[in-house]
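Reopening this one. Same input as before:
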Amino acid sequence: MIPISATTEWHHAHPSGIIGLLELSSVENTNASSALDERKRSTEADLRQRYQNFTRQDFLALPVMSAYEKYYKRFDKTYHVLLQVESIVLKGKNLPNVLPLVDANFIAEVETFVLTAGHDVAKLSEPIFIDVSREGDQMTQMNGVPKVIRAGDMIMKDADGISCSISYGQDNRSPISATTSHVLYVAYAPAGVPADQVDAQLQKIEENIRLFSPNVMVEQHNLLKVESH
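Same output, byte for byte:
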């Protein structure tokens, strides 16, 4: 199990924030999975039925979506999971085919709306912290472009720098690849997202992964919460 802790600054900057941690090892991540594809199709059908005739305002009235939209507005951004759900429900788009470990998370995200990043543990360097961004912080995004991060964002960083930011996504050092067998999922929940919804996200990811890798080992399943002061 890889140790991950939250800094005092994170606790102060994000009251009522929650971080969900799911670390899995002995994962098979190379084979296409008909069972996972079936889960995608059933999830898409469920979303279209549940949210038929929804407008963007209807989606934003849902408590979890509303909490993320408030957070993203601080950084002049639109919550990308909202856009993904809209594309499935309103435009008839399907979930993408990336890699099984990536797809397992995407399926869960559009069900729970809980933002989650996936990292290859072998590409992370201890110590690992959940922190808050400061003036001058930057990271190299997955597309290889350096990005200055605005202060106040929830981030995860390891010994080599920032690995993920809520507003700007993941770095280009630690993403899941076809060779990933030891994975860490980090769910970022700002104030207003219930702990049980974060936990449900982690459970759904694991359930989806067991469709194609039934012998996966759970190294940790944990929630970090802001301490009361």
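So the earlier flakiness isn't reproducible anymore. For the record, The chain has seven helices and eleven strands.
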